[in-house]
Specification:
Length: 175
């Protein structure tokens, strides 16, 4: 009888051990797939939120770069009645205000691209300021602006175009 009880106990312990092992394996697999599903859902949710914001940032920065091109900026500014110093102030403040208005967009844009955008803005302000100063002898602000627009010999145009190309390349890479 004691052999029989011993054998039943061993069988029962073996059955319990195998059962615990099977339940443990199922628990680990369930936990793995459940975590994987929630991770996928979390990533998908983040992408659904971040995608439109990032796309909007690229659009806004492309618009910014287009707005600071000298030919576009001077068509927006009423430069005819401005003195030369007021023209300088208007050009620089317009560029700085536009950049400050879009400063939060750097969160969604790669740092190297953002640096090119800032370089384009700063070089545009600097180039236009220098060009206005160097052409003071032409007369009033209207003549200076017309001369700048006719010659288009500013380095900032290259920086703006490079930043725009980088934005376009980056957006095609991500979207």
């Amino acid at each position: 009888m004691s052999k029989y009880i011993f054998r039943m106990t061993n069988e029962f312990l073996g059955f319990v051990g195998v059962s615990v092992l099977i339940v443990g394996v199922f628990f680990l697999l369930y936990n793995y797939f459940l975590n994987r599903h929630f991770s996928f859902a979390k990533i998908k949710s983040q992408q659904e939120i971040a995608f439109p914001l990032r796309l909007q940032a690229y659009e806004r920065m492309a618009l910014f770069l287009e707005r600071i091109k000298p030919e576009n900026m001077f068509t927006r500014l009423n430069f005819v009645d401005l003195s030369i110093s007021d023209l300088q102030s208007a050009v620089i403040s317009d560029i700085k205000n536009e950049l400050n208005h879009n400063i939060a967009q750097q969160i969604y844009i790669e740092p190297a691209t953002w640096d090119k955008i800032v370089l384009a803005a700063n070089s545009t302000a600097s180039d236009l300021n220098q060009s206005i100063i160097s052409h003071q002898g032409l007369g009033g602000s209207k003549e200076i602006v017309l001369h700048i627009l006719k010659n288009q010999d500013l380095n900032c145009t290259n920086n703006i175009n490079l930043a725009l190309e980088t934005l376009k390349f980056e957006i095609q890479k991500y979207f």
